[in-house]
Amino acid sequence: METTTNSRQMIRVKYSCASCGVHRTSVEVPARENEDVAQWVQSVMAVSIGVDHAARSPRCKSRTISEVMIPTTGADKIGGAGVQPVSVS
Ligand SMILES: [Zn+2]
């Protein structure tokens, strides 16, 4: 069994909620590793956003996030961490 949970890199995803006015706030999300993109979006990213949104706007009943921005800088795949440092050569 690999124990990658604790060493998993985090990325910062921004989201907006039109219902309560959260605008492009950022939340830390475990970076995608080997799972399918859809799987990661549904079971990792959406959960992290849902938790953050519920904490930030406990009275907001919206279950729909109006905008999600996933960083791509330095990442080699959707949702991936920035694994390739900027070349200095
Ligand atoms: Zn909201």
Characterise the protein shown here.
The chain is an alpha+beta fold and 89 residues long. The protein has a domain of 60 residues. Helices cover 22% and strands 22% of the residues. The protein is built from one helix and three strands, in the order E-E-H-E. Strands 2-1-3 form a three-stranded antiparallel β-sheet, with helices on one face. Strand 1 and strand 2 form a beta hairpin. The radius of gyration is 14 Å and the shape is elongated. The termini are far apart. The structure holds zinc ion (ZN). The site of zinc ion has 8 residues, from loops.
Summarize the structure.
The protein is built from one helix and three strands, in the order ββαβ. It has one helix at residues 37-56; strands spanning 10-17, 22-30, 67-69.
Shape: elongated
User: How much β-strand is present in the residues?
Assistant: 15-25%
**What gyration radius follows from the Cα positions, in whole Å?**
14 Å
Helical fraction equals 10-25%
Number of strands: 3
Structural class: alpha+beta
